[in-house]
Specification:
- With 253 residues, the chain is α/β, with parallel strands linked by helices.
- Helix content is 32%, strand content 26%.
- It has nine helices and eleven strands.
- The longest helix has 14 residues, at 227-240.
């Protein structure tokens, strides 16, 4: 596999072109590398310097992240941006990124994996963003307690950043939208759900959730968005036989 093969694989698997009207991230290859085979690819949530260092030290030829370096407008290559780009070029390490298409993917996306972890049945698209549903809603059978739901979303035993325990003690319906999707809680209220899971919370939703009787779990932006890149790493290894690994650089947020 070379860089062209990797880019073509990403674009065929994820809806990069189809979502370009709602996602102005520079999805796909953001920084290239020299010609030649790519036999090892690192996967991570963020294109941070720490992530890049660990990827290079472990022998990666490319780094695939959820949050890349470029976000829809021209960026000055100065300061930390210059240092990151320079590091990539100096180490001949390609950088690829995929934001909303990796949230949305029905099998490998952050929300698809979270929905499976939670045990959502009868899944339907949920969480409209500029007319595109990024997450999923569904039913839970058997029903769960709030603590049981949290344990499924955070299987390492860590605690959510924030919990609004305003809904039923017995949870039968839920929705998940990973990352910074606090405001989509209003859509969960409108749908009459028992539980809404996302990455970050907001003061703006507090009273609406309280008055509607909605449980809200903000499990962490980072914690809810490790799953897509991990699933993508497994798929790439299976499809191309290359070595893949996950670089874990949690922010605690």
């Amino acid at each position: 596999m070379d860089l062209r093969d990797f880019d073509a694989w990403l674009r065929s698997l994820l809806e990069i072109e189809a979502l370009s009207r709602v996602d102005d991230s520079l999805n796909g290859i953001q920084v290239g590398r020299s010609e030649g085979p790519i036999d090892c690819v690192a996967f991570a949530v963020d294109a941070s310097m720490e992530t890049m260092r660990r990827a290079a030290e472990a022998g990666a030829r490319a780094l695939m992240v959820h949050h890349g370096l470029f976000w829809g407008s021209a960026a000055r290559i100065t300061g930390s941006m210059r240092e990151r780009v320079k590091f990539l070029l100096d180490h001949d390490l390609a950088l690829a990124a995929c934001h909303l298409p990796l949230d949305k993917h029905p099998e490998l996306g952050n929300n698809a994996v979270l929905a499976r972890m939670l045990g959502l049945a009868d899944r339907k698209p949920f969480g409209l963003y500029h007319g595109v549903a990024l997450g999923f809603s569904g039913t839970l059978e058997p029903a769960l307690s709030l603590d049981e739901a949290i344990g499924r979303i955070l299987p390492d035993g860590s605690r959510p950043l924030s919990v609004l325990p305003f809904g039923p003690k017995t949870i039968r319906t839920a929705a998940v939208v990973s990352g910074g999707a606090a405001m989509e809680a209003f859509q969960a209220v409108e749908a009459g759900l028992d539980l809404y899971v996302t990455g970050e919370n907001s003061h703006s939703i507090y009273h609406a959730a309280l008055e509607a009787g909605l449980n809200v779990v903000a499990a962490g932006h980072y914690a809810t968005e490790v799953w897509g890149v991990k699933a993508l790493a497994e798929r790439l290894a299976a499809d191309f036989g290359v070595r893949t690994f996950f670089v874990d650089v949690p922010t605690g947020l």
